[in-house]
Predict the 3D structure of the following.
Amino acid sequence: MKFERLALIGCGLMGGSFALALREAGLVQHITGFSASEKTRQRALELGVIDQACRSVAEAVQGADLVLLAVPVGAMHSSFAALRDTLSPGALLMDVGSTKCDVISAAQATLGERLSCFVPAHPIAGKEVAGIEHAEASLYQARRTILTPLPQNSIRHIQTASEVWTAIGSHVSHMTPEAHDATFAAVSHLPHLLAFAAVNALTAQPQGAAFLEMAGPGFRDFSRIAASDASVWRDILSANQSEVLTQMAHFRAALDQFENTLKQGDTAALQQLIQQASDVRSAWTLQAGNACNKASED
């Protein structure tokens, strides 16, 4: 497996790391790149992440046999539309979006006969810092990448997509788009939302700044993901709105239980609720391929 030309659409942490990983593995000969920011394109060129900086999506994709969309999920529709006419019929097109149903809907609305080229992907990896300067070839090693193949995909495209991520160190899993979005609403999207809300609730209080000065490791660990990129998470939460709202309702019910036990002074019930959570968390272990310290989009 070797690609003649990778087109990288979105020269940031995720896309840049993918390009570096393929280059290090000897899987690609030439890499073109496009980002909306000319400064970012030039920086990617200077750092050796890409070989050619392009002024448009169409220019970058021309002649590519592998295309990676590493743009926010809110920009997927316009990116698909921009690459459709220059995407080679046999090329493999993938994304790195944290939501899948909306991305697939965008692909279905824009790609036409090229839809079969698109194998949706979500690598569970990243860092707390974004940008091409932080890209590294090892980002996807020992991480899980989820594929949500389409009925239109050929066995060859699905197999090649799996082989690409495996070759750069990922553990590949398959899910339906619906199962993916429901799962990550529960284990990623809601936790991010709660971290945002908790920090906002703290700082909205008159003594919030003073409280924050006294915060220790517990607050640090709980609030880490609140430092995530605002525009990225605006798009993710909006795109997966239905599943996130479902998870918010589950959380609200659990929070109500704690509130009621505190109001009633029922310490036995309070301890039981805490113990229940403690037992689950103590028994849980991070599965192979899921290790991740990402705050930007996990």
About this structure: The chain has two domains: 3-175, 179-283.
